Amino acid sequence: MTNWYCTLCDTNSETPEKPDTCPNCGADQIMMIDPDQGIPSTPEDVRDVARKRLKGICAAYPACDGNFDKICQKEAYGKPIGFGGAGQGASFRANALALSAVRFKTRVVGEHVEPDTRMNFLGIDLEFPVMAASTAGIERYNNVVKEKDFCRAVVRGSQQAGTIGWRGDTWFYTPDDSPALQALEQEKGYGIPIFKPRSQDVLKRLITMAEEAGCPAVGIDLDGCGSTIMAKHGQPVFRKSVAEIKELVEFSSLPFIAKGIMDPDDAEGCAEAGVKVVSVSNHGGRVLDSVPGTAEVLPLIAQRLNKQVLITADGGVRTGYDVLKMLALGADAVLLGRDIIRAAVGGGSLGVKIHLTHIHKVLRKALFMTGLKNVKDADENILFP
C-alpha cells in the first residue's frame, strides 16, 4: 500500500496503485505524489518538477527574461507562442529590462521595526500586496495538468499564502464550460475572474455567473481584443469603448477591473467608466511586440489617475524586490503570471503557496532594507535616481 499525497487538497490516500483521481478532491492523478519520493518544500523543488513537465515549452530558467537563448522565445516566428512573447519577444524582454533598471536606496539607520505588508484590496484583506495573475490555457501545454485543477491550484494556493488568485479566460473556455468559473464555484468564489473582451451579451452572462459563484470582483482583459485564436475558434473578441465598459460596470454588482492598460489616456477612460481597478499590463509581452516594459509606463499612468482608482501591475515581476519596485513606481498591488504557472504545474496548490510565501519573505526584507515600516509607504523616495 502506498500513501499517496495530493498537492491540490493536501490530503493522503492509502491505495496499492496510484488512483486515477484524488478520492478527496477529484483532482487528476498528476496532482498526486508518493511522499517517499519527496514532497516539494522549496521553490527550487517545485521548479525542478515544472521544468520536467514543461519540457520543450519552458525550462524554468533562473532568469525568465524572454532572451533568444530561452526555449520559449525560440518558439516564435510563426510557431505557437507557448510561454514566449509576441513577434521577436521585444515586449517580453522590455518588462525585465525596465525592472532591472530600477534601483533602490539602502537605508539602514533608524528605528528597528518589522515591516507591515498587509493591505486591503477591494474589501479583501491580504497579507501582502501580491496576487496570482489571470493566466489560462495551461492544459494545452504538454497536457501537464487538467485546466480546472490548474485553476483550483492557483486559487487554493493563493488563499493559503494569505492572498487571492485571479483567473483568466481563453479560446477553449465557453460560458457553458468555463474551467475557471467551475473552479471558483468549487472553491466558494475565492478568486477574481477576468474575461476576454467578448460581446457585451456574453460578458454579461459570464459576470452573472461570477456573481452567483460568490466572487468578490470581476473584470475584463481589454488587451485580449487582439487575440486571433479566440476568433479562430468561434469566440470573437472586441475593442471596448468607454461607454461599453461603463455599461458592464453598471451591469455588475461587483467591483470592476480593467486589465491590459498601457496608456494614460486609456487608463483615464477606464476610470471615467467607473472601474475600481486599472491593471497596468502588456499581457506579459504576448499581444503586441515592441511596446515598453510595464515599469516604464506605470509612473505615467499612476500620475494621470492620481489615486482615483486602485492600480495593479504585472510584467517581468519575478522576486519580492521586483514587487517593491512596482509599488514604488505607483502600483497598489502586483500580479505574478509565469512564475505562478510554473508553481502550479510543479506542485499544485502547495507549489503556489510555497512560491508566494517566498515572494512575501523577500518583499519583507526589501521593505526592511529600504527603511519602510509599511508597504503602503512605498514610493519613488526609496528609488535611486
TrEMBL record:
Coiled coil: none
Pfam families given in the database record: FMN_dh
Superkingdom, taxonomy of origin: Bacteria
Cofactor needs: FMN
Record carries keyword Oxidoreductase: yes
Name of the featured protein: FMN-dependent dehydrogenase family protein (TIM barrel family protein)
PANTHER family: 2-HYDROXYACID OXIDASE 1, S -2-HYDROXY-ACID OXIDASE-RELATED
Molecular functions per Gene Ontology: L-lactate dehydrogenase (cytochrome) activity
Organism, as annotated: Desulforapulum autotrophicum (strain ATCC 43914 / DSM 3382 / VKM B-1955 / HRM2)
E.C. no: 1.1.2.3
UniProt entry keywords in alphabetical sequence: Flavoprotein, FMN, Oxidoreductase
InterPro entries: Aldolase_TIM, FMN-dep_DH, FMN_HAD
Oxidoreductase among keywords: yes
Residue stretches making up the FMN hydroxy acid dehydrogenase domain: 84-385
